[in-house]
C-alpha cells in the first residue's frame, strides 16, 4: 500500500526551502489528512534531523522530506555575474543591496546519510534524482520507510 493511498485527503503540503515548512505545519497537514513535507533545502543537517524528530513527536502519520540534489555540472559563475549586473539597477532604484550568491552542495551527502540512517516515509528530490552509488542505497531504504 502506498503512502498516498493512506491519506484522507489528496493534499500534499509543498516543501518550502529555507524555513516556512516547519514541523508544526507538517504535523498540522498530516493531522488534517494530507501529506506534510519538510524541506531539507537551505537548512543544516542538524536542523533537518531535529525537525524530523519534532514531526515524529507531533504525529504518527506519514510525512515527507524534500532534498535539493546538487548540480553535478557545477555553476556558471559568468552567468550569475551577468544576471546580478542586470538586476543591479533595479535593486539600486529600490534602495536594496543584492545578496551574494550561495552555492555548494547544500550538505547533500550529510542529509542523504541522515535520511538513510533514519528513513522517513517519503523522500523527494528537487533538481533531479540521485544516481550512481547513492540510488541503490536510497531504494534499499524504502522497505524500512513507512508510518512509524
From TrEMBL:
Task: Quote any Pfam family the record assigns.
Answer: NMO
InterPro entries given for it?
Aldolase_TIM
TM helices/strands, residue ranges:
24-43
Q: Which GO terms describe its molecular function?
A: monooxygenase activity
Q: Write the record's keywords in alphabetical order, separated by commas.
A: Membrane, Monooxygenase, Oxidoreductase, Transmembrane, Transmembrane helix
Q: What is this protein called?
A: Nitronate monooxygenase
UniProt organism field: Micromonospora tarensis
Amino acid at each position: 500500500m502506498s503512502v498516498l493511498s493512506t491519506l484522507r485527503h489528496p493534499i500534499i503540503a509543498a516543501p518550502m526551502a529555507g524555513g516556512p515548512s516547519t514541523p508544526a505545519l507538517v504535523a498540522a497537514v498530516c493531522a488534517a489528512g494530507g501529506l506534510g513535507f519538510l524541506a531539507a533545502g537551505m537548512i543544516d543537517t542538524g536542523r533537518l534531523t531535529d525537525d524530523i524528530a519534532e514531526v515524529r513527536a507531533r504525529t504518527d502519520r506519514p510525512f515527507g522530506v524534500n532534498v535539493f540534489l546538487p548540480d553535478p555540472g557545477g555553476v556558471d559563475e559568468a552567468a550569475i555575474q551577468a544576471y546580478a549586473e542586470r538586476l543591479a539597477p533595479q535593486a539600486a532604484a529600490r534602495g536594496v543591496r543584492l545578496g551574494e550568491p550561495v552555492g555548494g552542495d547544500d550538505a547533500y551527502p550529510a542529509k542523504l546519510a541522515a535520511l538513510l540512517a533514519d528513513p522517513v516515509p517519503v523522500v523527494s528530490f528537487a533538481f533531479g534524482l540521485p544516481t550512481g552509488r547513492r540510488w541503490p542505497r536510497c531504494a534499499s531504504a524504502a522497505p524500512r520507510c513507512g508510518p512509524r
